[in-house]
Every structure is written in C-alpha cells, then in structure tokens.
Design goal:
This protein is of the alpha+beta class. The protein has one domain: 2-Layer Sandwich (Ribosomal Protein S5, domain 2), CATH 3.30.230.10. It is 35% helix and 20% strand. Strands 1-2-5-3-4 form a 5-stranded mixed sheet. Helix 3 packs parallel to helix 4. The radius of gyration is 19 Å and the shape is elongated. It starts with a helix and ends in a 30-residue tail after the last helix.
Length: 144
C-alpha cells in the first residue's frame, strides 16, 4: 500500500452540525477545540487521538476534563493543534476542552477550576542571555 493511500484510509470523517469552540494554550502549543454532541470520539489533526498520541497517559490527560464533569461519552471533539511537543500539545487540548465545557455548562466551572484545568500554565522556556551558554549556564571559569 502506498503512503498516500494509507493516509487516506487513516483520515477520519469530521462531525458536522452545531459545535462549541475554544482555544487552549501551553508553552508554544495552541489547540483549537470543537466539541460536538456525540459518543466520545476524539480527532486530533485529522487522526484518531490514540494514534496521534502514542502514550496512554496523554490520552488520559486529554479526557480528564470530560471525566471530571461526567460527560466522557456525550461529546465528540475535533482538534487542530500546532507548536510545542507532545506533552504541551496534550495539555493545550485539555485546556481547550475545559474552556469549551464551561461554555456548554457554566455550572461545571467550579469543578474544573478547583482541578486547575482552567488556568493557563504560564511556565515556558526562559530566554538565552548574552555571555552565557543557555539561560543560566555560564562558561567554565578558569582562574589561571
């Protein structure tokens, strides 16, 4: 099977109809999340979430806001995510799903806020300073 034919078979059909939209961010990753009424399917960049993220813990991280509210099998999600690494992308998706859930059901805000899923994680890489090798690492000091 050629690569193009394989790519066509792995692409999923996108749900249509009304959806709730939200953005999620972490480090340099940005996730655009759309939540549809459905049965719990997750699509990330036109691939199934389990195939896009090889690590099961990241899939659990993505589904955590839905589990917390108790609506894991009620929504389908299509996500377009760019930038960052796998872990940052998964956290950006989690942030976006949590924001979209609040627009659907404002009463779930207290539950998600206590779990810390609505707060954007501000930690990011520190910039490199001149005269240093990295952000804080200095060149080796020689006395003589």
């Amino acid at each position: 099977m050629s690569k193009t034919a394989e790519e066509k078979t792995t692409k999923m059909t996108t749900p249509s109809g009304k959806y709730t939209y939200a953005n999620g961010r972490r480090k340099t990753a940005v996730a655009k999340v759309r939540l549809y009424k459905g049965e719990g399917k997750m699509t990330v960049n036109d691939k199934e979430a389990t195939k896009y993220f090889g690590i099961k813990t990241l899939i659990g991280l993505i589904n955590s806001p839905l589990k917390m509210v108790g609506k894991l099998k009620e929504f389908d999600a299509t996500v377009v995510v760019k930038g960052g690494g796998e872990s940052a992308q998964a956290e950006a998706i989690r942030h976006g799903i949590a924001r979209a859930l609040i627009e659907i059901d404002p009463l779930s805000k207290t539950t998600l806020k206590k779990a810390g899923m609505l707060t954007r994680d501000p930690r990011s890489k520190e910039r490199k300073k001149f005269g240093l090798k990295r952000a804080r690492k200095s060149p080796q000091f020689s006395k003589r």
